[in-house]
Amino acid sequence: MTDAWNMTQDLIALRHALHRQPEISGAEADTARLIADRLRATAPDDLITGLGGHGVAAVYDSGTPGPSVLFRAELDALPISETSGVVHASERPGMAHLCGHDGHMAILMGLAGTRPKCGRMMLLFQPAEETGTGARAVLADPAFAPLRPDYAFALHNMPGMALGSVAVAPGPASCASVGWRLTIAGREAHAAFPETGLSPAPFLARLTDHLATLPKGAEGAMATLCHLNMGAATFGIAPGQAVAHVTLRAISDSGLTALERALRDWVAAQSEGLRIDITRHDHFNATLNDVDAVAHTTAARAALGLAEGDFTFPMRPSEDFGAFSAYAKCALFFLGAGEAQPALHDPAYDFPDALIAPGVALFRTILARVTA
C-alpha cells in the first residue's frame, strides 16, 4: 500500500469521525479541539486556536520570502436531522454535516505538515459559516492580523455536477444575501368587528405579492418569504401582531444594498399605520473570484487531468468566504459531488469520500504553482 493510499484512508476515517459528532455554528468546541490536536502532531510553525470563536489556524513557513497562501474549510454542521442511513451517521439528534464541511475539513487536513518552496501556507478551519458570521469574526480577530494572506482558496462540493469535476470562473462566485426579520405591530380586535382593529394581514398579502414580482435585473435580485406567524391560534380575535422572515439575495454586495434600500422604502410606503421594525440577520458578502487565483486553480485542474464541471456562475446560495475577497486574491471553486447525489442541506446527503483525494491534490497543486 502506498503512503498516498494510507493518507487517504486516514482522512476518510477523520471525516467519518467528524460526521458522527457534528456541532452547529458557534458551538464547534469539540470539533476545533480534535482539529487542533491533529494539526499539533504535524509540527506547524504556529497554531492559533479560539480564532473568531472556535476557529483554528496552522502556519507552515518555508523560511524563504514569498507569498502567504491560505486554504480554508468550515467547522460547523447544520441543525437538521440526518436520514442518510450511512454507518457513520450523526450521533447527535437534530444535528448533521449535510453541507459537506466534514469532507472539506478532511481535505484541508491532507495539507497539514506541508511547507511551500517559498512563503508560507496557512490552513484555516473557520467557525460559523452557515450563519454568515464566522469569516467576519475571524477577520476582525486581532490574532488574524499577522496571518493576512496574499491568496485565499476554498472549495465546496457541489451535488448535480459530475463526480470529481471542477468548476471555477473569475468574477462573482456566490451571491450576497441577508435575512430580514420584520416585526409588525397593529391592534387586535374582536373577530366580529375586525374593522375596529389594525390587522397586519393586508400588509402581509401585499408583501407576499411584491416579493414574488421583484424584477431580477442585472444583479439577479430576489427575495424569498421563509417564515410567517400572525396572531393567536384562536377564532375570536382578529390579529394585531405578526412576524415575517424574508431572505434577500443579489449577485453583488452593492446589488444587495440597493435591494434593501428599495424594499425599506416600499415597506415604509405600505405600512398604513402599522409599526414595522426590521432587523438584519445571517448577512453574507458576495464572493468575488480573482483572475490570478482562478488561473492557478484552472491550471491545477488541467495538470491533474480533472474534468471541467458544468456549472452556472454565480452560485445562488451564499458562502461567507466572500468576506475574504476584500483582503486577498480569492478563488472559491466547486468540486462535483455526483449528478445523483442528494442536494446540500438535504437530510439524506453525505459527502462522497471519493472527493478527498482529488481535493487534496488540487490544493497541493495550487500551492506549488503560487509559491513556485
Walk me through what this model shows.
- The protein is an alpha+beta fold and 372 residues long.
- The protein folds into 2 domains: 3-175 and 286-370, Zn peptidases (Aminopeptidase, 3-Layer(aba) Sandwich), CATH 3.40.630.10; 176-284, Alpha-Beta Plaits.
- Helix content is 28%, strand content 26%.
- It has 8 helices and 15 strands.
- The protein has helices spanning 3-20, 29-40, 101-109, 134-140, 201-212, 253-270, 291-303, 356-370, and strands at residues 46-51, 55-61, 68-74, 120-126, 151-158, 166-167, 171-174, 176-185, 189-190, 222-230, 237-238, 241-250, 275-284, 287-289, 329-336.
- A 7-stranded mixed beta sheet has the order 1-2-4-3-5-15-6, with helices on both faces. It has a 4-stranded antiparallel beta sheet with strand order 10-12-8-13, with helices on one face. The protein has a two-stranded antiparallel sheet with strand order 7-14.
- α3 links the parallel β3 (68-74) and β4.
- α1 runs antiparallel to α3 and α7 crosses α8.
- The longest helix is centred in the first third of the chain and has 18 residues, at 3-20.
- The two termini are 30 Å apart.
Quick overview of this protein structure:
The chain is α+β, with helices and mostly antiparallel strands.
